[in-house]
Structure formats: C-alpha cells, structure tokens
Amino acid sequence: MASSLFGIDIGGTKTTLCTWSQHERVMETARFATGSPENTLSELKTALDQAADFDAIGIACGGPLDARAGVIQSPLNLPGWHDIAIVDELHRYTGKPVFLMNDANANTLAEWHFGFNRDADPLIYLTAGTGMGAGIIVNRQLLDGATGSAGEIGHWRLAPVHEDSPLCM
Description:
The chain is an alpha+beta fold. The protein is 21% helix and 31% strand. It contains three helices and ten strands. It has helices spanning 37-50, 86-94, 103-114, and strands at 4-10, 14-21, 27-33, 56-61, 65-66, 71-72, 98-102, 123-128, 132-138, 141-142.
C-alpha cells in the first residue's frame, strides 16, 4: 500500500483536495469551486505542483463515469464534463498511479474502513449533496457492478440538462 496518497473529490459545486499517510489522518489541503474541466484541471495541476511527495492519486466523482477507463462521462451536476479522461491526464502530468471511483462508493469504503460503521457487514451508505448516491458492502466486498454504479438510487432532474447529457442510468 502506498504510504502517502493525494485525494481529489470533484463535486457539483466544489472540488476538495486532501492528503493521507499511514502516520496521519486525512488532511484537507485545498478547496475551490468546480468549474469547467479545463479550469478545474488547471487548478488541480497547480495544487499537485505544491503538494508534498505522494505515491498515488485517488479521485472521487459522481457518475456516470467509467472508473476502469478513468473517464468522467457527463455527470448531471457537472455541465461540460463529457468524456473527460482525467486519469490519463493526471497520470501524464505526475507520472503517478491515478484511480477514479464513483464518489458514493468511495464514501462507502471510507465509512467502512475508518468511520463509525467500521467493518459493518452488510453496510448501505447513502449520500446527499449536489447529487444523491449510495454504496453497498456485502460479505466484506463493495458491490460496484459492471459500471461502478451498483447501488445508485437514480437521478432526479431539477433543471434543464445539456442536450449531450445521458438520460438517467
């Protein structure tokens, strides 16, 4: 396991950055408004340049996304974020391993490993922010499904969506 990690949470209103090492708690290092993919990636690169040494990067983002390919695929709460290959982009920039995961699944794993419900089995975790999500752990395994969105409870649209955005999953 890496001894120092850099975490990125891309949300509908803000992007939060943190670091974690085996000897420290999670420490928030920066926060900024989530904008266009270009502006957000620029701010991320600036933050990565200023970060202490780290071994890997983990990115949490609401879906839909293709975690295995490392691509953010038009989340309803991120206008303009259509097929953004964020894992490849940040790997090229840093040379470090980069991983992408649905934010509800990432939250579920964090709660299961470190939170009040540590080691609870089964565990269903619900999250409500700019969007809503859910993660499920059964038999000590995260259920992620074919697209990494198993457990998702759906999408409710409250505002018009860009014409290229996918319909609800």
